[in-house]
Structure formats: structure tokens, C-alpha cells
Amino acid sequence: YRYSVRWGGIKVGESYLGSTEKVEIASTSAYLLFSSAKTLPFFDSFYKVRDENIAWLDAKSFVSLGFSKHLREGRFRRDEEVFYDHTLSEFKAKVYKKNGVIVEEKGSMKQYAYDVLSALYLVRAQNLEVGKHADFERIKFEEAQKSQGINFFLLFYKQLFSILLFVSCEGKDY
């Protein structure tokens, strides 16, 4: 799916959300989910954005197996990959720093928590009602390995598969 990115009513970029073929991750069949965002050429000179996110969703159990993000927003850079082991309630992560240093993290997590992209993909399959909430646990390893909640609030249906969501994550509204 292709979406327009607007700032103050002006189209400043485009965003894509979708899934491709099934892939194998750690001997598990998974759906490969992706999202990307980029600014239009004119706006690149002000604040260039080139974001790419990938998530792997177990094809049988629909749990998040992990995600990878490659963020380029103005001067901000972030590259990381995180993989989840739900049977052990553990995650392993790698953060790739600008200076070439790779920081490895690991820790505990709530079982069956989701990354943001997988949660967004799954909320589309929920039986949502206007004015009702759908909640998912989010894995956030940067801050003391705590899981955070993601809350989706359906404002209205636009089309069958295109819905406008109000998303609240970590106390911030998106």
C-alpha cells in the first residue's frame, strides 16, 4: 500500500506498507512485512527522510520473530535488528553505531509481545469497532528491557483495508 505523508496539509513524502513472500527465519516460516518512508525530492534539502523497516511474523502462530530498522531522518541515523525467542521470553539485539561499533543487547521480555510493525499489521485483522481500543504489548529493548503497550484507537473506516488509526505508544500519540 502507498500512502502520502503530509505535514501541515502539504504532501512532503510517501510511505509504503506491505508484505511479500514467506521467508525462513531460524527454521521458521514467516511473513516478511515492510514499511518505508521517504521525502519528496524538493523536501530532501530541508529534512531528508529514507526509512526502511522489516519485521518477521511467524506464519503459523502469528507472533513477532523480530525486526530490522534502517532509519535516516535529517542527521539522525539508526540501524538495528532484534530477534525474539518467545519460548524463553528473551530477545537479542544489535545496534549499529555511526562509528562502526556494533552494540549487542540481550534480555528478558514478555512472552508474545510484538514489535510496532507486526502489531500494526495484525491490528488490520482485528474485529475493530469505531471508538474501541485494541492493545498489543510492544518490545522495547532500549530502556531497561521493558515491554511497553501499544494502543490502537479506530477513528473511522475509510475503506475495507485502509483505516485511519490513532496510535498511542509510550505515552506519545501518533
Properties at a glance:
174 residues; mainly beta; 12 strands
Summarize the structure.
The protein is mainly beta.
Overall shape: globular
| Average predicted confidence as pLDDT | 76
Largest sheet: 8 strands, antiparallel
Tell me the span between the first and last alpha carbons: 19 Å
Q: What class, by secondary structure content? A: mainly beta
Percent of sequence in beta strands: over 45%
N-to-C SSE string, H for helix and E for strand = EEEHEEEEEHEEEE
User: What's the number of helices?
Assistant: 2
Helix content: under 10%
* Low-pLDDT windows of residues: 138-174
Radius of gyration: 17 Å
The tally of beta strands, per DSSP, is 12
Strand order of the largest sheet: 1-2-3-4-5-6-7-8
